[in-house]
Amino acid sequence: VTATIRILPPEIASQIAAGEVVERPASAVKELLENALDAHARTIVVEVEQGGRRRIRISDDGDGIPAAETQLALERHGTSKLSTIEDLDSIRTLGFRGEALASISAVARVTLTSRFRTGTQGARIRVEGGKIVSPPAAAGCPQGTVVEVEDLFYNVPARLKFLKSEVTERRHIDSLVSRYALAYPLVRFRLLTDGRESLHTSGSGDRREVLSDVFGLEIAARMLELSVPVVEGRIRVEGFISPTDVSHANRKDILLFVNGRPIADAALATAVVQAYHTLLMVGRYPRAALFVDMPPEDVDVNVHPAKAEVRFRSPDAVFSAIQRTVRQTLMMQSPVPEVRPPDTWPQPSWSGGHAAVPMPEWMLDHQPVTAPDTPGAPQSPPQAFSGMDRMPLLRVLGQIGATYLVAEGPDGLYLIDQHAAHERVLFEAVMGARREETAAQTLLVPEVVDFPPAQAKILEGQMDSLRRIGFDVELFGGGSFQVRALPNTLGSLSPSEALRAVVQDIEEDETPLAAEAEARMIARICKRAAVKAGHVLGAEEQAALVRALEQCQSPRSCPHGRPTMVHLPVALLERQFGRK
Ligand code: ADP
Ligand code: MG
Q: What pTM was computed for the model?
């Protein structure tokens, strides 16, 4: 093979460059939307056919393009938004590279029709695969611009091959247009998909109204508005977040915007997730639409041709501004549960008795990792959230339906779900053990567990996590795993049950942080190991379970978010019995 260096013909070079900007139909829609917004449009109509492959048509009532410049607009580096390199530091428009129209024109058949603000008539030009097929000519049209993109990638078969299904492309376009609609509530957006209207916003400026178009009426009505738009240094954050009882299976509904630009930023999404720490069940995520504003010179949007990622001058400041705002709003607006302990609990009359209760065998290894708070002493939470969730010390009265424990507290009656409570106890014990040298319980006979290839692959990825929490497990070959020891805390759980819990319900397209994935995995194992409903517990087992629950950091919910207990306060009982 002789390597001869040649300069690529301009058509090929521009097709390659176009690929960086226009990856799929939604990227073309994004660029055209941004152009309309940059041109101060008040109404934008997006029409797509066949997931955008057949046709994308975006009409706006913005400033328009002077007839003499329509051809320039389609040329590479043709832009009205940037003239000196210094301008790059203070970009206030969404576009600035002068590449979008040129790129789209290189890989589709594009018709641009526009009438400038002060023009008396419009102009139309048509380009196919980067070549002008109809030069600019006068055309009657209202003020504004219409860009019609037909047969996207018709001349780039390789790209066409990689497009996902029509449904997927449509979903991308839907979510993209929704995001811009959220970012620009003063602009009316209409999205027509194969002739059917799939989004229509009013342009009234009311963002909650747009939220209901995006998340649905019910959720939108419940979203919390960030109480005070926090201004931290030069960073301002406003928007909406879900209350703690409205959660989502993944992070995809954490929508972030910086200076009116939808962005993808895993770290900032994590800032939001972390602000909900202990307030959401494991494996559940908040929804949010957060709008961050900062001086343009503090953020670099010129990182990627598609401008989906940005780089901050001080990422930590943005992270903390978001986290603080979200947390403050949650603290102010979601009322602390009714059963929140006051600063000092009254000394329960029966206190002191329970220490003598011996632990039953199945509880012996579930000793909590933290020392219990002294009843009567003020509680000083080790971190922001863990303290407010504590429960009072309870006197266990018995078990009903082989499922619930009944207990008395300083303020009324408690019903405890034994399975959920035990899940919580195990979960915190295993999570705690992770940080220490783990006590493992060696099996008399190592057990070999087999998995089909897909599951074996998942399990292989979890080996480190498993070892960290006290499993002695090794790949045995051919989808088989050998378990020699289990964490002590899991007591009676069989190796096969434990490993099956690990591979169960893994959401593959989800890429949560490693720590979250590990917590979810542990929660699944603990669910298997926890005592089941319908299992009769002796008095000592009941007491031991409640003791262990009292010492948990978040005793009120199981790791999956179900409540572990229901509280009937004295006041409620008195009302019910007509005493008050
Ligand atoms: P950029 O947006 O980076 O400047 P584009 O290739 O997207 O580059 O657009 C080139 C130029 O065409 C813009 O700078 C603008 O002057 C003009 N233009 C494109 N679309 C519109 C529109 N919808 N309304 C008014 N002007 C437009
Ligand atoms: Mg542009």
A: 0.61
